[in-house]
Structures are given as structure tokens and as C-alpha cells.
Design a protein that fits this description.
The complex is a heterodimer of chains A (362) and B (324).
Chain A (H helix, E strand, L loop, with lengths): L11 E3 L10 H4 L4 H26 L13 H10 L5 E3 L5 H7 L3 H8 L25 H13 L6 E6 L6 H12 L4 E7 L2 E2 L2 E2 H4 L8 H4 L3 E6 L3 H16 L5 E6 L18 H9 L2 H12 L6 H21 L19 H16 L5
Parallel strand pairs in A: 1-7, 2-3, 3-4, 4-8, 7-8
Antiparallel strand pairs in A: 5-6
Chain B lengths: L2 E3 H15 L3 E5 L15 H5 L4 E3 L4 H14 L2 E5 L10 H8 L2 H4 L9 E6 L14 H5 L5 E3 L4 H13 L4 E6 L7 E3 L12 E4 L4 E5 L4 H13 L4 E5 L2 E3 L3 H11 L2 E8 L4 H13 L8 E5 L10 H4 L3 H13 L1
Classes of the chains: A alpha/beta (362), B alpha/beta (324).
Chain lengths: 362, 324
């Protein structure tokens, strides 16, 4: 018997609004002007929030911060596709999605300023706090999706991570579980081409990241991650597929990190100015602005008004963040267990005494 | 009342908790049809169905990781890791996430999971099947570490662990899974964090847990024949440690020996000695001795008996403390 092909696969690429302004209006059909204006307002707010975070960090008012500049289309497309009842598991470069989910900007600043209260996700928002060790939150999302399926809750779970995470065991183990148990989950990869200084070509020899899903028995697609319409369309479809019992989807969003990895990084050490310039041309915000202008959405002053309103909201968040009094140092002991152990209580007493004798910071 | 082995009492505790609370769900490798490699989950698939007794892919990290997400969602996952030597793949999930979730979310999410795993040597198993590395986990803030030594305690401690709102590592002494049978009249949970005085004595305190309790009791009974009254303390929960019980006994006897099969350096015995020294130094008549494994990996079965603490080593150390 001769060899035969037992399986073959294809990977789709989705782009609704391209860099030249060409737009697939059929795929856009479900979106009204109001929604498109909303996309823009969120993208501007995220850009403004992010710029402010970098300024605060430079001024010593924030700790290390991971900028999301250049990835706003993914954040907005994804954030707005999620519904309130869905669960969301971020890595550490999703301030935009978190904001859309309802987490106050003040709390995101708090987290990056080193205040643990920034991780206290408010009741009613089904999100996990930031996950710093790369990819380790993927199994958590899988578990939540599994529990939802177990209880027959008609919700979906979305987990976001970067291209670097696709090299981690937890990514593969989580994808495998999701495939085997056909869980209601969307794996959203923000492929921004750099994991700190290591380029995509060092993470994988695969032609796409999307194709990794195929090995786990579900669909993987690639979308233009700098086109907010594509991301929104793909994520909304995948979530619906998950909620309807169709199982997982992997979405690879092709985007670019315009900033450094974090404020502790200097990307000029490892990538060329030329490459950065090329991607600045593909800035997702610019692409949407050109579209708005071409379609005369929102009128003349819309963009400026949006920017002004974002500046005001961000200033207010900074004000709230900076006027929040410090956390009680004894909180160190209060949240580890439902009831602190005798050792913790003794250590708490020791710190309490120390604070009485010697005020904090002395 | 039927006599149960330790592994049977674990099976019973699992079945009863699953009956009591529909949120309890079992996850692991070979725990379904096969009933677990030690048969701890025997018959549970038939009783509770495959939605609640779930054979998973061979994937320790995702197993613990998924349990964290499930627990946050409201379920109570009880995981079986086949042998302690295979838990390290899930170390990051345990240390960086399970143990920290409540704290880092300021109490928004709890992580009520139980990770059951057989530990320890003496079962003539291949390499990596005989580990006793509890110290790694005791060192992790936010995890409870529980080790039963008898069928009754295995039952009561497992019930308490499943009902505990925080993550528990439940170490099952594989060596005595079937070595002892007793009537298990226990119906209540055994509270976590409480040691048990197994035999009362006035001359020396012998401190042990898990499978090491049994050579320790054998040594105590031989000492008694020589007129020496040893008080044997079974710690049962290693984290949090029952420091008051430890101190009470040592203050009474003035002498102590700690027994564990884990390596000596950085082993939990060192912490026990430190606590005694901090709080009861002036009650001591002699330095506290440690009887432990060596600072080598536990050897393959042909040589493991040279490694594992036994009755004669415990006796020797106890006599040294008594004769100091």
C-alpha cells in the first residue's frame, strides 16, 4: 500500500480593515456607528492610560509597568466581545481588557505601584488578577471553563497571553485539556513578536502559532491584531461557539509591542529602529482614525473630544490612585488563609508591636 | 464495625464527602475505571459517574492548575498525584498560584483544593516513587500539609482537608496503606493543626508522623520494657504545626527525638528543634536528636533499608538523649 494523506489542515487569516483602508463591509455589517465610536473611545482611553503610566513611572510614582502601546486593537476587540457573565484570565499586558471589564483604572495603577489591593478584583467582575509567571494562568482558565461546563452554565472563558507563552508547558497542557474535554474557552494569543528580547523565530519553528491548536483537536485562526474589527469579530464568534457547546478556539492576533517589554527594559538593545518604524505605520489607532475620517463617523471634533475626555478620566484615576492612603501593613497576614494560623497571628503581633515603637519607613 | 486499612478509609472519606457535597469532584490519572494505582478511588466512578471522577490526561501541572480555576469557580477539586515524585511538574502551580490566590486577590478568590499523593519509601518501587519531600511544601506560605499515620486519622483528616477553605497537600504514607487495619469509628473530621499524643510518657518525647510513627512506636514499646516511659507525639498536620502540643510534651519530659524519613539538611526536624529551642530551652536536659534519612536521594529498593530510619536507629538516638 502506498502512502496516503490521512489528515491535512488549513489556517485561516482574517482581516476586515486593512492597512490601506480597504474594508470588508459585509463582515462589518453587524456593527453600527455607535459601536465603532465606542471602539475608538476605548482605544484612546487605553492609549492615554498607558502613556500616563509611563510618565508616572518615570517620575517615580509607579513601579515597573508593562506598556500595551500598539496592542489596543486586540484589547478593545476582545474586551468588548466578552460579556459580563464570561470569565477572563489576563497575563500582565491586558490593562485595556481589564478596564473594559470594569476594573477601575485606579486599581491597575495600584497594582503596578506595588499595592496589593490592586489585585482585589471587585465582586461582580469574573476576572482573575494579573498573572506574572508566563503562561501559568492558562490552566486556571481551563479549570474555570471546566467548572462552567460541569455546572452547565452557558458562559465562556477567555484567557490572554503572548507569543512567549506558547513555548511553555502550561500552554500545551492547558490546550490539551481544553481539547480533550471540549471546554468553553477561547485562547487569545497576542503575538506581539517579542518576548522581551527574544523574537518569534526563537519561540517556534511553526509557520503560525494558530496551527498549534490543530494538534489539540480544535480550530486555530490568525487575525490582524491591529484591526479592531477583525479581533472583535473573531473573538465574538469564538465565544459564541464556546457558549453553545462547540468547544475551544485558539486565536492568534498578529500585533506588535511598540514600547519596551516593561519600564525596566530597553528595546533598542535588540530590535532595529527600522522595524519599529514599520510597525508605527501600522498603529491600530491610526488605522481606525483614518477609517473614521473616511466614513465621516462622529464628525469633525469627535477625535479631539474623545482624546480630551480620556485625558480627564485618566487624570481623575491618577488623582484617586495618588490620594489613596497606604494599606495597613498588618494586611500582610490577613488574606493568606481564611483563618490566620497561630504562627501568623504571632508574627502579626510582632509587626504590630514594631510599628508602635517605630513608625513605618524608619 | 468493619476494620479498614488506611487506603480503604481514604476511599470511604472520599465517598462520603462526595455524597455530602455535590461540588466535590475528583481528578487524576487512572482514578476512574482503574480506581487509582493504589485503589484509593476504587468503585467511586461507578458510584458518582465520570463527571465527578475524572481521568485526566497525564499532566500534573495542568491538573493542579485547572483545579485552581475550578475552585475559584466554586467547585472543590480533590486531585490525586500518583506518587510524590511526580508532583514537581505542578510545583509552580502550587507555590506560585494555589497557595497565593486568596492572598493576591485580597480574599476575592479562595482555593479549596486537596492534593492527595502517596509519599515515602519502603514499598520497593522504582526510582522517583519513594520521595518524602514535605519540607518544600511546608516552606510555602499558604499551603497546609497534612500526613495521617492511621486509618482513623486518614479518614478524619481527609474529611477536614476537603472541608478546609484553603489548599491542602495531603500526604499518604504508601508504606502503610495496607499494613495496618483498625476499626474506624471516627465519624467527625479530625481538626487540622492538632497533634495527637499516641502514648503518654514522662522520660522522653518522640516526635514522628506518617509511616515513621510505626517504627517510633516500636522503639517506644521496647523502651518501656527497659522501664523508660516515652511519650510519642504524632504531628498529623505539619503545616500549621501544633507548637503548643510539642512544647507541652517537651516541657514535661525535658528530652526529645524527632524522626523523619526525609533528608536531614533543611528537613522539617530542624524547624521542630528550632521551636523547642526558642520556647523550651530551659526545660531541656539534653540536645534534641534527629533521626532522619541521609542527605542523598532515597536509593532504589535494594538499598532503601539502609536509608530509612528504623527502630534501632530511633532507640540509639533516644538512649543518647537519655544518657546525655
Amino acid at each position: 500500500m502506498a502512502k496516503e494523506i490521512v489528515q491535512s489542515f488549513q489556517v485561516e487569516f482574517l482581516q476586515i480593515l486593512d492597512e490601506g483602508g480597504r474594508c470588508d463591509e459585509d463582515l462589518l455589517a453587524s456593527l453600527g456607528e455607535k459601536e465603532i465610536r465606542g471602539f475608538y473611545e476605548w482605544m484612546v482611553l487605553i492609549r492615554t492610560f498607558d502613556e500616563k503610566a509611563l510618565n508616572l513611572q518615570r517620575a517615580g510614582r509607579l513601579g515597573t509597568y508593562a506598556s500595551v502601546r500598539g496592542q489596543e486593537a486586540v484589547q478593545v476587540g476582545c474586551g468588548l466581545a466578552l460579556s459580563k457573565i464570561d470569565w477572563f484570565f489576563p497575563a500582565f499586558r491586558e490593562p485595556g481588557i481589564s478596564m473594559i471589564r470594569g476594573i477601575p483604572m485606579k486599581m491597575i495603577y495600584q497594582y503596578w505601584a506595588g499595592d496589593e489591593r490592586g489585585g482585589a478584583i471587585p465582586e461582580g467582575i469574573n476576572d482573575f488578577p494579573t498573572a506574572i509567571p508566563v503562561g501559568t494562568h492558562i490552566p486556571h482558565a481551563v479549570g474555570a471553563a471546566w467548572a462552567a461546563k460541569h455546572r452547565k452554565d452557558p458562559i465562556a472563558v477567555l484567557v490572554s497571553f503572548g507569543d512567549g507563552a506558547t513555548s511553555k508547558g502550561d500552554f500545551h497542557e492547558g490546550m490539551n485539556f481544553a481539547g480533550v474535554f471540549r471546554l468553553p474557552i477561547v485562547f487569545l494569543c497576542q503575538n506581539n513578536r517579542w518576548a522581551i528580547s527574544v523574537p518569534l523565530s526563537r519561540q517556534t519553528a511553526s509557520a503560525t502559532l494558530a496551527q498549534k491548536a490543530i494538534a489539540y483537536g480544535f480550530n486555530g485562526i490568525q487575525v490582524d491584531g491591529n484591526d479592531v474589527f477583525s479581533v472583535h469579530y473573531a473573538v465574538a464568534q469564538a465565544l459564541e461557539h464556546a457558549r453553545a457547546g462547540g468547544g475551544p478556539t485558539f486565536i492568534e492576533c498578529l500585533t506588535y509591542r511598540l514600547g519596551d517589554h516593561t519600564t525596566a527594559d530597553d528595546a533598542t538593545r535588540y530590535r532595529s529602529a527600522q522595524e519599529l518604524d514599520q510597525w508605527r505605520e501600522k498603529d491600530p489607532l491610526k488605522r481606525l482614525e483614518e477609517y473614521l475620517e473616511r466614513k465621516e463617523i462622529g464628525g469633525e471634533s469627535f477625535q479631539e473630544k474623545t482624546r480630551e475626555s480620556a485625558r480627564q478620566r485618566v487624570s481623575q484615576a491618577v488623582e484617586e490612585f495618588e490620594t489613596t492612603s497606604d494599606a495597613d501593613p498588618l494586611d500582610l497576614f490577613r488574606y493568606l488563609f481564611s483563618n490566620p494560623t497561630p504562627e501568623l497571628l504571632a508574627q502579626m503581633d510582632a509587626l504590630r508591636k514594631e510599628l508602635k515603637d517605630r513608625p513605618p519607613g524608619r | 464495625m468493619a476494620k479498614l486499612t488506611l487506603v480503604q478509609s481514604i476511599n470511604r472519606a472520599l465517598a462520603e464527602e462526595m455524597k455530602r457535597d455535590p461540588n466535590v469532584i475528583l481528578l487524576g490519572e487512572d482514578i476512574g475505571k482503574d480506581g487509582g494505582v493504589f485503589r484509593a478511588t476504587d468503585g467511586l466512578l461507578e458510584q458518582f459517574g465520570e463527571d465527578r471522577v475524572v481521568d485526566t490526561p497525564l499532566s500534573e501541572s495542568a491538573l493542579v492548575g485547572a483545579a485552581i480555576g475550578m475552585a475559584a469557580y466554586g467547585l472543590i477539586p480533590v486531585i490525586e498525584i500518583q506518587f510524590m515524585g511526580f508532583i514537581y511538574a505542578a510545583m509552580e502551580q502550587l507555590v506560585s498560584h494555589a497557595s497565593r490566590l486568596r492572598n493576591r486577590s485580597r480574599g476575592r478568590y479562595a482555593c479549596p483544593i486537596v492534593i492527595r499523593t502517596p509519599y515515602g519509601g519502603g514499598i520497593h518501587a522504582p526510582e522517583h516513587h519513594s520521595e518524602s519531600t514535605e519540607a518544600y511544601f511546608i516552606h510555602t506560605p499558604g499551603l497546609r500539609v497534612v500526613v495521617p499515620a492511621t486509618p482513623s486519622d486518614a479518614y478524619g483528616l481527609l474529611i477536614a482537608s476537603i472541608r478546609d477553605p484553603d489548599p491542602v497537600l495531603f500526604l499518604e504514607p504508601a508504606r502503610i496503606y495496607r499494613a495496618i487495619k483498625e476499626e474506624v469509628s471516627q465519624t467527625d473530621p479530625v481538626p487540622l493543626g492538632r497533634a495527637r499524643v499516641v502514648t503518654l510518657g514522662t522520660d522522653v518525647t518522640l516526635i514522628a508522623w506518617g509511616s515513621m510513627l510505626h517504627p517510633t512506636l516500636a522503639a517506644a514499646s521496647e523502651l518501656q520494657e527497659r522501664g523508660i516511659q516515652a511519650e510519642v507525639l504524632d504531628l498529623r498536620t505539619l503545616s500549621p504545626l501544633d507548637t503548643p502540643a510539642l512544647l507541652e510534651s517537651v516541657r514535661k519530659t525535658g528530652r526529645a527525638v524527632v524522626v523523619h524519613e526525609a533528608p536531614r539538611t533543611g528537613g522539617f526536624g530542624a524547624e521542630i528543634v528550632a521551636r523547642i529551642n526558642e520556647e523550651a530551652l530551659l526545660s531541656l536536659e539534653a540536645p534534641v536528636e534527629r533521626v532522619t534519612g541521609f542527605d542523598t536521594p532515597i536509593p532504589l529498593p535494594r538499598q532503601e533499608n539502609y536509608y530509612l530510619p528504623n527502630k534501632s536507629r530511633i532507640l540509639e538516638a533516644t538512649l543518647k538523649v537519655l544518657e546525655f
